[in-house]
Design goal:
alpha+beta, four-stranded antiparallel sheet, globular, coiled coil
Length: 152
């Protein structure tokens, strides 16, 4: 299983063509999943999306491939783990962090970009428990928030 301890992520950098292509291939599923995640979290803990609570679902998901600002990539025996920071263009200082898994297409070795298949793995949602026991939730991050390994 790939974990932060077993996978070395690259330093954060601007996306290169292969990352842009992978992101573009999952763009529709990402937008759909983001709205779904927001809806689910709004039922139980609206703080996750409080930073963009004034946005409609369509404004929340109005990003394009040009809004993918930063990526980090790690390699495992199973494929590539692409982490991306995506700007929400309809809000100030609002970003989502996404994780994409890229593997070889069935019947290929995945050695070329054309032989790889990208799938949305997850959208980062964070729950922090403070020392006083208070919980802090967020799914919207700022420009200065580090793009780190996450599983959820």
């Amino acid at each position: 299983m790939a974990t932060a301890e077993t996978i070395q992520l690259s330093e954060p950098h601007a996306p290169k063509e292969a990352s842009i292509q992978a992101f573009e291939s999952i763009l529709d599923s990402l937008k759909h999943e983001l709205v779904k995640v927001r809806h689910e979290h709004d039922k139980h803990e609206s703080e996750y999306f409080r930073a963009v609570s004034s946005l409609s679902n369509s404004d929340l998901a109005a990003f394009t491939t040009s809004d993918l600002e930063t990526v980090r990539v790690g390699t495992s025996a199973y494929g590539l783990h692409l982490f991306g920071k995506v700007k929400i263009p309809k809000a100030d200082n609002a970003y989502i962090h996404v994780r994409i898994f890229i593997a070889a297409e069935d019947g290929t070795d995945g050695s070329s970009v054309e032989e790889r298949v990208a799938k949305l793995h997850s959208i980062h949602t964070e729950e922090i428990v403070n020392e006083d026991g208070d919980h802090v939730y967020r799914a919207i991050f700022g420009k200065n928030d580090e793009l780190e390994w996450f599983d959820t």
